[in-house]
Amino acid sequence: MTDRYWLIAATVTYLISAAWGIYALGARRSASTPWHDSVLVLGLIFSSIFLYERGEVIRHCPITNLFEVVAFFTWSLVLTYLVIGPVYRMSILGTFTAPLVFCLNFLALVAPIDIPTNRPPLGWVLELHACLSILGFGMLGVAALAGMMYLIQERQLKRRSLDHWFYNLPAMGQLERVHRLVLKWAFLIFSGGMALGFFIPHESTLDWVKVFWSAAVWLLYGGLLLAPKFLPLSHKKVAWASVAGYVFVLLTFWGINSLSQDHRFSLPTDFVAHPVTMEAAS
Fold first, then answer.
1. pLDDT the model gives residue 268
2. Distance CA 51, CA 53 (A)
3. CB-CB contact of 118 with 80 (8 Å)
4. How many CB atoms lie within 10 A of CB 25?
5. CA 1 to chain centre
6. DSSP assignment, residue 268?
7. At what angle do helices 93-110 and 124-159 cross, to 10 degrees?
8. In a 10 Å sphere around its CB, with 0-12 CB exposed, 13-18 middle and 19+ buried, how is residue 253 labelled?
9. Of 23, 68, 129, 265, whose CA is between 20 and 30 Å from 155?
10. What is the rounded CA–CA span in Å between residue 119 and residue 265?
11. What is the mean pLDDT of residues 251-278?
């Protein structure tokens, strides 16, 4: 599909942003510049055009295969950063976001996972459930990056080794506040998506593998938000759990979705495919 060219363009812009950030940190220069954020905005625009055009072609929200899910996921990562970073003066967060987004998009483009699927109408509940869940995962990714930045700052202060990383990163108090804020909103959005999943019509019994996995993720991040209020839990431990939890999500999300029966759609006998969808699948 020609819409892939827009995602390729977005991936190139993310590569430029990542390369500049790595170079700036290595050269002990400020990676937080208006030019850097402008490149990420351009990449977000290209990603948005890809998602729009793919949706027009398949006549669905573009989350019908793993390739589209990755594209939507990275779009949500960049969007979250562009909302959080400038508002809280944490543009350095973009230096951590760009390499992750580039790697995920690049792997999606080179892997044979863009498999056209001929799907029946999914319904707004299912599409909203999937969109909110993926958006929540993207925000949790930004929270994990903020937690990683907090751990870098904490380690340097503990060792009393204040190199150029220390002067490029925000203060620990600000990192802690932003980390908790993003965790809270990500948890709320993911909770909304998870709740909608119970209103999706099921052909048979519930997909308990996906239910237990989603519940485990929900409990993990809910615990990270509530535990500090009732337990003597330092934010260092919360940051470590946030990073470790997100690694778990990244490593298991794709496998759980491939095993999930609720993410395999069977065509009804009276379903007639849209001609554009059939053309894209051929």
1. 37
2. 6
3. no
4. 16
5. 24
6. P
7. 130
8. middle
9. 23
10. 7
11. 51
Helix (H) or strand (E) holding 238: helix 235-259
Give the Cα separation of 231 and 224 in Å (integer): 11
Tokens of 118: 């001929």
DSSP helix/strand/coil, 2: coil
Length of the chain counted residue by residue: 282
Q: Are 257 and 66 in contact (CB under 8 A)?
A: yes
Burial status of residue 140 (CB atoms within 10 A of its CB: 0-12, 13-18, 19 or more): buried
In this prediction, residue 119 carries a pLDDT of: 61
User: 265 with 122: CB under 8 angstroms?
Assistant: yes
Pairwise CA distance, residues 282 & 277, whole Å = 9
Question: Rounded to an integer, what distance in angstroms lies between the CA atom of residue 28 and that of residue 224?
Answer: 34
CB half-sphere exposure, 280, CA atoms < 13 A: 24
Question: Distance between CA 264 and CA 245 in Å, rounded?
Answer: 26
Report the candidate in 147, 148, 140, 227 with the shortest Cα–Cα distance to residue 184. Answer: 140
- The winner for highest mean pLDDT among 61-65, 228-232, 234-238 is 234-238
Q: How far apart are CA 108 and CA 102, in angstroms?
A: 10
C-alpha 66, offset from chain centre: 13
- Pair of tokens at residue 128: 């909203």
Cβ distance 109 to 4 under 8 Å? yes
In this prediction, residues 210-233 reach a mean pLDDT of: 83
Name the residue among 62, 55, 46, 53 with its Cα closest to residue 12. 46
Q: Which pair of structure tokens corresponds to residue 213?
A: 């996995």
Residue predicted with more confidence, 280 or 250: 250
Q: Where are the alpha helices (DSSP H) in 160-171?
A: 164-168
Look up the pTM and report it.
0.74
